[in-house]
Amino acid sequence: MEVASALLTFLQTSQISGGTLIACNDSCSGQNKNFQMICLWQYLEAKKFFSCIHHKFPEDGHSYLDSDRDFGHIEVAMRC
User: Fold this and answer.
1) CA–CA distance from 71 to each of 24, 38, 46, 76 (Å)?
2) What pLDDT, in 10s, does the model give residues 26-77?
3) Would the pLDDT of 17 be above 90?
4) Which of 16, 21, 66, 71 is the most exposed place for a label (fewest CB within 10 A)?
5) Smallest Cα–Cα separation from 15: which of 49, 51, 53, 52?
6) How confident is the model at residue 9 (pLDDT cuts 50, 70, 90)?
7) Taking a C-beta distance cutoff of 8 angstroms, is the pair 46, 17 a contact?
8) Residue among 4, 61, 3 nearest 27 (CA)
9) What does the alpha-carbon distance between residue 9 and residue 15 come to, in Å, rounded to a whole number?
10) β-strand 52-56 against 20-24: which pairing, if any?
11) How many degrees, rounded to 5, is the angle at CA 38 between CA 66 and CA 32?
12) C-alpha–C-alpha distance, residues 57 and 28, integer Å
């Protein structure tokens, strides 16, 4: 629920809307593959935030996103 809520708040405060939204997430069922996220996408389309939403997940076995590498660099820097 926290991820969907944070994403909705971000979209509302930054006034990002219109066109197509493409969301790329890891396959974490607790954060990105759950009922709350599906409801958020439906809400955003119903309220005309976006005309189309594509929610993409990496293939099985290829679950690392570029942001994972960035977080790894941040963690190493914080340890030093």
Assistant:
1) 16, 26, 34, 9
2) 766 666 667 888 899 999 999 999 999 988 877 666 556 666 677 778 888 8
3) no
4) 66
5) 49
6) very high
7) no
8) 61
9) 10
10) parallel
11) 30
12) 10
Reported for 68-77, long-range contacts at CB under 8 A and 24+ positions apart, including other chains, are 68/26
Angle between helices 35-46 and 2-14 (to 10 degrees): 20
To the nearest 10°, report the CA torsion of 41, 53, 22, 37: 20
* 30's tokens: 């607790």
In whole angstroms, how far apart are CA 5 and each of 10, 27, 37, 66?
Answer: 9, 18, 9, 23
Residue ranges of alpha helices (H) inside 1-80 are: 2-14, 35-46, 66-79
